[in-house]
Design brief:
Layout: E1 8-12, E2 16-23, E3 34-39, E4 48-55, H1 60-69, H2 78-82, E5 92-94, E6 112-114, H3 122-148, E7 154-158, H4 165-175, E8 178-182, H5 187-200, E9 213-217, H6 223-240
């Protein structure tokens, strides 16, 4: 239901995909984003465009922790384990397993875990994997704000990872705006069905469909803390670059 210019949504699954509605304007990104058609409500109406940014590794990082590193029995356990991580150190995990997508587009990047101390345990690694998704979404949103010239006021979200309340709260904290969770997790499929319906039945184009939001997450940290944490993320990203020389 991001049917107005300036609205954006993020879908959290194996990867994460962010779309920003730019209305009837095709914004040519200078910051590594893709310009795409968002939708067209019937052949008689003009198309609406969007900027798109993709995160290669979101939920897939939890699969890696489960299958490769074996510190996670089930992805559903990730919130409980992450919440057990003490605050005596800041661990940053950049899951660049095969490079970084938007806005970096660096195929030579590889995964790094920074900030490890003698107090670091598996819970810190799980927490860092969840936070990495939120940092990468901020990367994309910052690029979108710069390309479009005006900032977002809220972000709508859907997908499997939105059931993780810690991820959603962390996302709101790191971007500094409200995050509105869809009541129906698979809202991407529902949205495609609605647009198809409006495209076929011209008499109902743009008719409001009652939609409920599952929950709104509001930022809880200060701007200073937000900037400090994001600075650490950017430092870790810098350390992930240039590893693959082939």
């Amino acid at each position: 239901m991001c049917l107005h210019k300036g609205q954006a949504k993020a879908t959290y699954g194996t990867g994460c995909f962010v779309l920003y509605n730019t209305g009837d304007i095709r914004v040519n990104s200078s910051r590594g984003l893709l310009t795409t058609v968002a939708y067209q409500l019937g052949s008689m109406n003009p198309p609406s465009y969007a900027l798109e940014g993709s995160v290669a590794v979101a939920g897939a990082a939890l699969g890696w922790l489960k299958d490769n590193i074996e510190i996670l029995d089930n992805a559903k356990d990730s919130q409980n384990l992450a919440e057990k991580a003490t605050d005596n150190g800041s661990v940053i995990f950049v899951p660049a397993f095969s490079g970084l997508y938007a806005p970096y587009w660096r195929q030579d990047a590889r995964g790094v875990i920074c900030g490890i101390t003698e107090d670091t345990n598996s819970n810190h690694i799980v927490k860092a994997a969840l936070e990495a998704v939120c940092y990468q979404v901020r990367d994309i949103l910052d690029a979108m704000n710069e390309d479009c010239g005006f900032p977002l006021h809220l972000l709508k979200v859907d997908g499997g990872m939105t059931s993780n309340a810690l991820v959603m709260q962390t996302q709101a904290d790191l971007i500094g705006i409200d995050v509105i969770k869809a009541d129906f997790t698979e809202s991407t499929a529902l949205g495609a069905a609605l647009v198809a319906y409006w495209g076929v039945d011209g008499t109902n184009q743009g008719v409001p469909i009652p939609m409920t939001s599952g929950f709104t997450y509001q930022p809880r940290i200060s701007e200073d803390e937000r900037d400090m944490r994001y600075k650490q993320w950017k430092m870790a990203v810098d350390r992930s670059l240039g590893w693959d020389q082939n």
